[in-house]
Write a structure and sequence with these properties.
The chain is of the alpha+beta class. It has 17 helices and nine strands. It has two domains: about 200 residues, Hypothetical Protein Pfu-838710-001, CATH 2.40.320.10; about 280 residues, CHAD domain.
Length: about 500
C-alpha cells in the first residue's frame, strides 16, 4: 500500500499557456506528456461511493492498471489517501489490498459480482518532476480533457501537486509560487466526484456551512483548525457557482463563510500564534468588501425594489429604477468574478491552508499550558454575550447604526454557538441558535431598509425621474419599517433576559 499526498488546484482553461511558461516548471528535472483514459466502477446502488472507496481502471500506453483508493482525509484541496495499484489481469483482483477488512468487503459477491462502469475520464497529462532541494521531490501534473457519464460531459482543467518526498509545507510553497502570476484556487471536487455527479445528474446547488466535528478533548488550537478548515471548505465549495452562475445564493454563502472565519479568528485570538491573523485579515477584508457590494445589491433588488415593482406594475419610474439597480448589480457580479480570478484570492486560500497544516496546529506544542476547550469556549461565549448585552443597552430605535452594531454582536455570538454546538448539552444549542437567528433576521431587515435609501439614491443619480421612484419605494415600505421599529423594545427585553447554556453542564437560571 502506498499513501498518496496531493494538493489539487483549479486552472482556468484560458491560462494553460501562461502556466506552461512558468520559470519554475521550465527548471524541472524531467517533463513528459501522455494521454490517460480511466473508467470508474461501482455497483448499481453506488456502494463503493457510499463507503468512500474508488475503483478505477486506467489505460496508460497499451496497458491497463487497476487502482483502489480510500478517501481517508481531505481538507482545503490537500488529500491524503492510501491506494493499491496492480496491472489489470482482465478481471478485478483485490488480493493486493492489504487492508483485510476492505479486501473482504470488496470480494463479497454483492460487491464484486455487481460492478459496472459508471463514468470515464479522458485527458492529456503533462508531468514535471521538481527537486527543489535534496530532501524534496514533487510531481506537478497538468490535466486537460473531460469527464463523461450518461451522455453528459464536463471539461477537466486542473493542476495536481504530488509530494513524493519532503514536507507538506514544501507542497504549499510550490503552490504559492505558481499562484503568484495567476489564479490557482484549491480544488475540492475530484474527477471521481464530478463523474458521480454527472452520472446521477446531480444539480449544482449553493453549499451551506457544515457541522464542525470538534470534541471536548480537543485543544483550543485543534478546535480552531477544524473550524477554520470548515470555513475554507464552505467558501471553496461555492466558488464555481459564484463565477459561473447568476444565482445570488453562491455569493451569499461565500460571504457567510468569510464572516464565520473572521468570527473564529476573533474568538480564538488569545491562543493563536503571533502574526497568524495578520496574514489573513487584510486579504479577507478585500474579499469581503467585494462580496458585500454584490450581496447588498442583490438584497436591494429582491427585498426592496421587486416587491414595490410587483405591487405597482404600471409605474414606469419603478421600471426605470429597477433597470438602473440591475445594471449596478451586474457590474458588482462581474467585479466578483474578476476578484475570484485574481492571484490574490488563490494566495489567500493557499496561505490559510498552509498555516493550518503546520505547527502548532498539527503538532501542538505546550498543550499542557492551554486551557481546556470547554473552559475556553464557555469563557469566550460569555464574553460575546456580555458584548451583546452592552450593545442592547446602547441601542436606540432612532439611531439605526446602534441597531446595526447590535445585529453584528448577535451574529458573532450565534456563529460561536454554532461552532461549539456539539459540546453544548442536549438540544439547548438548537433553541438558542434559532432565537438568535430570529433576532438577527429582524434587525437585518431594519438595516436593509435603513441603508436602502442611500443605495437607491446612488443608483438613481441626478435623474429626477428615478429619484421620484426612490420616494415611492420609501413610502411603500414605510409601514413595514415602522412595525419593525415598534417591535424593537420587546426584542431588547428578550436579549436582556437571555441566558446561555453552560458548556460544563451546570444548570442556568432563566431562559435557555
Amino acid at each position: 500500500m502506498a499513501q498518496q499526498i496531493t494538493l489539487k488546484l483549479t486552472v482556468a482553461e484560458d491560462r494553460h499557456g501562461a502556466l506552461l511558461k512558468h520559470p519554475t516548471l521550465a527548471a524541472a528535472t524531467t517533463r513528459e506528456q501522455h494521454p490517460l483514459v480511466s473508467i470508474y466502477y461501482d455497483t448499481g446502488r453506488m456502494a463503493l461511493r457510499r463507503a468512500g472507496i474508488l475503483l478505477r481502471l486506467r489505460k496508460h500506453g497499451a496497458s491497463w492498471q487497476q487502482t483502489v483508493k480510500r478517501q481517508d482525509d481531505s481538507s482545503g484541496g490537500l488529500t491524503r489517501r492510501p491506494e493499491w495499484q496492480i496491472p489489470y489481469p482482465n478481471h478485478f483482483d483485490f488480493a493486493c489490498v492489504d487492508d483485510a477488512e476492505l479486501r473482504d468487503w470488496l470480494q463479497r459477491d454483492k460487491i464484486a459480482g455487481r460492478l459496472a462502469a459508471v463514468f470515464e475520464t479522458n485527458f492529456r497529462r503533462t508531468v514535471w518532476q521538481l527537486d527543489p532541494d535534496a530532501d524534496t521531490r514533487i510531481l506537478v501534473k497538468l490535466d486537460r480533457g473531460w469527464v463523461a457519464a450518461n451522455g453528459r460531459r464536463e471539461s477537466i482543467s486542473e493542476l495536481e501537486l504530488q509530494l513524493l518526498s519532503g514536507s507538506i509545507e514544501s507542497l504549499y510553497a510550490l503552490a504559492l509560487e505558481l499562484a503568484q502570476s495567476q489564479a490557482l484556487p484549491p480544488l475540492l471536487l475530484s474527477k471521481a466526484e464530478r463523474g458521480y455527479r454527472l452520472s446521477l445528474n446531480t444539480p449544482s446547488v449553493p453549499a451551506r456551512a457544515g457541522d464542525v466535528p470538534i470534541d471536548a478533548n480537543d485543544t483550543p488550537l485543534t478546535a480552531f483548525r477544524l473550524i477554520a478548515l470548515n470555513c475554507l471548505t464552505h467558501l471553496q465549495l461555492n466558488h464555481d457557482g459564484a463565477v459561473r452562475s447568476d444565482d445570488a445564493e453562491y455569493v451569499h454563502q461565500m460571504r457567510v463563510a468569510t464572516r464565520r472565519l473572521r468570527a473564529a479568528l476573533r474568538m480564538f485570538g488569545p491562543v493563536l500564534p503571533g502574526g497568524f491573523a495578520e496574514q489573513l485579515v487584510p486579504p479577507m477584508g478585500e474579499l469581503m468588501r467585494a462580496l458585500g457590494q454584490a450581496r447588498d445589491l442583490d438584497v436591494l433588488m429582491a427585498e426592496i425594489v421587486v416587491p414595490v415593482a410587483n405591487a405597482l406594475p404600471g409605474e414606469p419610474r419603478l421600471t426605470d429604477l429597477a433597470s438602473a439597480v440591475t445594471n449596478r448589480l451586474y457590474g458588482a457580479r462581474a467585479h466578483i468574478r474578476h476578484v475570484l480570478r485574481q492571484p490574490a484570492y488563490s494566495q489567500l486560500l493557499l496561505t490559510a491552508a498552509s498555516l493550518l497544516q503546520r505547527a502548532p496546529f498539527v503538532e501542538p506544542s505546550g498543550a499542557g499550558d492551554a486551557p481546556p476547550l470547554l473552559q475556553f469556549a464557555d469563557r469566550r461565549l460569555r464574553g460575546l454575550q456580555r458584548k451583546v448585552l452592552e450593545l442592547a443597552d446602547a441601542a436606540r430605535v432612532d439611531y439605526p447604526p446602534s441597531l446595526h452594531q447590535l445585529r453584528i454582536g448577535i451574529k458573532r455570538l450565534r456563529y460561536a454557538i454554532e461552532f461549539f454546538g456539539p459540546m453544548i448539552p442536549g438540544r439547548s444549542s438548537v433553541t438558542v441558535i434559532k432565537r438568535l437567528a430570529g433576532l438577527q433576521d429582524e434587525l437585518g431587515q431594519l438595516n436593509d431598509l435603513a441603508s436602502a435609501g442611500t443605495l437607491l439614491m446612488v443608483c438613481a443619480g441626478k435623474d429626477p425621474h428615478l429619484r421620484e421612484a426612490v420616494t415611492l419605494i420609501g413610502g411603500w415600505h414605510g409601514t413595514r419599517h415602522m412595525d419593525l421599529l415598534g417591535d424593537i423594545p420587546d426584542k431588547l427585553k428578550l436579549i436582556r433576559g437571555f441566558k446561555l447554556p453552560r458548556l460544563d453542564g451546570r444548570a442556568t437560571d432563566g431562559q435557555t
